[in-house]
Design a protein that fits this description.
single chain, alpha+beta, 20 helices, globular
Length: 663
């Protein structure tokens, strides 16, 4: 999934939150800022301090206008109904509904996931109810009625105005989990949570806050300090924070699966491999900032291990050392990037260091020490294999710049999305020779001549969930029954590779190793000439670049550009047809992996009914352009992005093949 698609989806989710959840009135402060109230054991937090201004700023954007367009009403009505059902399933455990949250907030509304004890997860909702006392009282009466209907017993809590409801145990996995709901309403604040002890602590610190708060964490302070200075005084941002690995661990412990799923425990693996160096991530989002429809600022807080230099190769331990993204003074799309692509991303990544750091991670994932070295040695020494030295013949010949181009072919179907990954080659001739040697030994790769270039195309593959791959594309696999044999390791890794980019095509051109999801898109890239004017010459790209230079006036490690309409259209059409779970795109495969049942070959049910969505051309005008940048900084990585309204200066260019090659 490309970075700009993530931006579009992030903005869309924030937009829906505004339209469907936020109240219409706000006044200031019945309690201290929520980040000073929630404890330092907070693993996730989201807050809007001024919901009214936030809502109004969103309504002025094209995203807000999109949700209000009459052609969207049938879908939005159905979507709201589905959200209500989902909300009842989740908030219903607290006796709340989504409609309740629209009635009572008068100031800040905040939610937090807290770990009061190791492996215990508490969910807390904190709402400033100033000016909504009558609505709050009516809500509390309704909540009590709902909980009693769930056979809850009511007792007095430890804090003033607090009630505790004990509900029948809920079956969770192989054990019964006790259920409690604690509610407190006093002094203009509503506190609701599933832990009476935590709710009591929150109530006790509403006015003065606490010393060991979320705001006291170095990660939070670094994020607030770096991102907060980017907010105009007129903006009302949505702010957020998460301890990624900490939240994943406690969520995993608190929500064991009903059926034990096979495969590695990635949360535990990341912790063992040094990725707990990422102490936190967070930032803010706000809307309608002058010419910008939306804007976000994020800091991933990952300071170096004590005693080490911020940008050194050994900044982190073990596999986490691969997280090295050097800044560059200039990052622009090369002239061969087609003008009409949906998206473009360029990132700086120390590939040589990443390769050197991959061994412990791969071995940990496979569950057997020495697997990585066995595979690399097999590729070099196996008489039936390509006999290439991956580190010397390939990795050492590559640079540190990686490009990802995204687009789609028409007519749109489950196999329409296109991707090209381009890796800078310092010695293009040697890389080409290595690729040819590797591909020539693989019976499932065919050689094709196109635009004066040799393309190696994969044949007879079928798509599934994408998996981690470390093997050079094209390596031949010999059968081995002995699992300790290097052949077996190579076979297992290749089987996972086959499921990702099943129609892949590879070549070396324009000074880059090019790996494409489909040959037709690769041939478009090869056919683009400097005289035609590539993406860098497009007017809408120039507008986004101008805004990004204001956010990143110096060096950066990543830049991206996306046309939101073209980026979302394939998913929109698949959603409209009810075929999103069948999509063979990288995004579709990721969704199947995250939302499916984990069983090989099964197709998940589509979660959202898109049958009432309008024709895309009726709403295309609401989608503009997006841009993202990232700078490696001493304390981690700083990211910022913008969404601009639709440009009227760049005419649409249609060069997508109507009958794609290699489908």
């Amino acid at each position: 999934m490309t970075k700009e698609k993530s931006i579009v989806k992030g903005f869309t989710l924030a937009a829906l939150a505004c339209a469907l959840l936020l109240p219409s009135a706000a006044t200031a402060g019945a309690f201290a800022p929520s980040e000073t109230i929630f404890p330092a054991t907070t693993r996730g937090w989201i807050s809007v301090a001024n919901p009214q201004v936030f809502q109004e700023s969103f309504d002025r954007t094209q995203y807000g206008q999109l949700l209000k367009d009459p052609v969207m009403k049938p879908f939005m009505d159905g979507f709201r109904a589905q959200l209500r059902t989902a909300g009842k399933q989740r908030l219903g455990k607290l006796g709340l509904t989504l409609e309740d949250l629209e009635k009572v907030p008068g100031g800040e509304i905040a939610m937090a996931a807290i770990e009061p004890q190791p492996g215990v997860l508490a969910s807390i909702l904190l709402v400033d109810t100033t000016g909504h006392e009558a609505e709050t009282k009516a809500l509390l009466d309704q909540v009590e009625k709902r909980l009693i209907e769930q056979k809850a017993t009511k007792t007095a809590g430890t804090a003033p105005g607090m009630s505790v409801f004990q509900l029948p145990p809920e079956q969770n996995g192989s054990s019964s989990k006790p259920r409690q709901v604690a509610i407190s309403s006093a002094a203009g604040a509503l506190v609701v949570g599933d832990s009476p002890a935590v709710v009591g602590q929150i109530v006790a610190t509403l006015k003065q806050g606490r010393k060991d708060s979320l705001a006291s964490l170095p990660a939070y302070q670094a994020i607030a300090g770096r991102c907060g200075k980017e907010v105009p005084s007129s903006a009302a941002p949505l702010r957020w924070f998460v301890d990624p690995l900490g939240y994943a661990k406690v969520y995993q412990a608190a929500n064991p699966p009903r059926e034990k799923r096979k495969g590695p425990d990635y949360v535990a693996i990341l912790g063992r491999q040094g990725f707990d160096a990422v102490k936190g991530a967070g930032g803010l989002v706000f809307f309608d900032n002058g010419t910008r429809e939306a804007q976000h600022h994020t800091l991933v807080y990952a300071p170096p291990v004590a005693g080490r230099e911020p940008f050194a190769i050994d900044r982190f331990d073990l596999a986490a050392r691969m997280l090295r993204f050097p800044n560059a003074d200039k990052i622009d799309p090369p002239q061969w990037v087609p003008r009409d692509v949906s998206s473009w991303v360029t990132a700086q990544w120390d590939l040589a260091n990443a390769f050197a750091s991959a061994e412990p991670l791969v071995d940990d994932i496979v569950g057997e020490k020495g697997v990585f070295d066995d595979v690399i040695a097999s590729l070099k020494e196996d008489p039936d294999g390509p006999q290439i030295d991956v580190e010397k013949d390939l990795v050492a010949c590559l640079g540190s710049r990686i490009l990802v181009l995204g687009d789609y072919a028409t007519p749109i179907d489950i196999d329409s999305e296109r991707l090209v990954i381009a890796i800078e080659a310092k010695d293009a001739d040697k890389v080409a020779a290595t690729v040819a040697k590797s591909m020539a030994t693989d019976p499932d790769m065919q050689k094709v001549e196109s635009n004066g270039h040799v393309i190696w195309e994969m044949i007879d593959r079928s798509a599934s969930i994408p998996k981690l791959e470390i093997e050079t594309p094209g390596g031949a696999i010999a059968h081995a029954d002995d699992e300790s044999d290097p052949h077996h390791h190579r076979k297992r890794l290749r089987e996972k590779e086959e499921k990702f980019l099943p129609h892949s095509a590879v070549t070396v051109a324009h000074g880059h190793l090019l790996i494409a999801s489909h040959r037709d898109f690769l041939e478009r890239v090869l056919a683009t000439s400097a005289g035609e004017g590539g993406l860098a010459a497009a007017a809408d790209y120039a507008l986004v670049t101008g805004e990004m230079k204001k956010l990143f006036p110096k060096a950066s490690a990543l830049r991206s550009f996306g046309r939101a309409d073209e980026s979302v259209r394939p998913a929109f059409e698949m959603l409209r047809k009810g075929e999103m779970p069948k999509s063979k795109s990288v995004m579709g495969q990721l969704l199947n992996g995250l939302l499916g049942d984990g069983k090989e070959g099964s197709v998940r049910a589509q979660k959202i009914d898109g049958s009432t969505l309008p024709d895309f051309e009726l709403i295309r005008k609401y989608f503009g352009t997006v841009g993202l940048g990232m700078e490696s900084v001493p304390e981690g990585w700083y990211l910022a992005g913008v969404a601009l309204p639709r440009s009227q200066t760049e005419p649409e260019v249609a060069r997508r093949p109507a009958t794609p090659v290699g489908r």
